[in-house]
Design brief:
Blueprint lengths: L2 H17 L1 H6 L2 E6 L2 E7 L13 H17 L5 E10 L8 E11 L3 E9 L5 E11 L9
Antiparallel strand pairs: 1-2, 2-4, 3-6, 4-5, 5-6
Length: 144
């Protein structure tokens, strides 16, 4: 672990969150950030329900996608999703507190692979997300 790299990671994610209106709308709170890693949380609201009376799958996907973005971009290298997949394991309900934890599996020059686990307040895994990102040659924020 490198404290300087983790400090940069936190600064980049804070910068991203300021501009990320969708993550703000979801009510995402950033719990932890390290280089190549993020952990975030949100509480499910009633407007997130689908026609079956459970939470729309796009909500869990979006939470995982935000965790993925924070983990793969936090080296201050603009990275975009190249491929994603999600497996829904359990239903999500209004009032559930969801935590998404993104872990880097591979950090390559042009791609990165991330595994994101989404759990509820009972520590039940409700979904598993896998994301591959493409790394550009752009920075997200200026560096001194």
């Amino acid at each position: 672990m490198n404290p300087e790299k983790d400090k940069l990671a936190k600064e980049v994610v804070a910068h991203m969150m300021k501009k990320d209106l969708f993550s703000q709308w979801l009510g995402i709170e950033v719990l932890d950030v390290k280089e190549g890693y993020s952990k975030i949380e949100m509480t499910v609201r009633s407007e997130m329900i689908n026609g079956f009376g459970i939470v729309h799958g796009g909500i869990a996907f979006s939470l995982a996608d935000s965790a993925f973005a924070f983990a793969c971009n936090n080296r201050n290298v603009l990275s975009v999703a190249l491929d994603t997949a999600i497996n829904f394991l359990k239903p999500v309900h209004v009032g559930d507190i969801l935590t998404a934890e993104a872990k880097e599996m591979h950090n390559g020059k042009s791609t990165g692979l991330y595994h994101i686990s989404i759990s509820n307040q009972k520590d039940h895994v409700v979904a598993i997300f896998k994301g591959t990102c493409f790394r550009t040659d752009k920075k997200l924020m200026p560096q001194p």
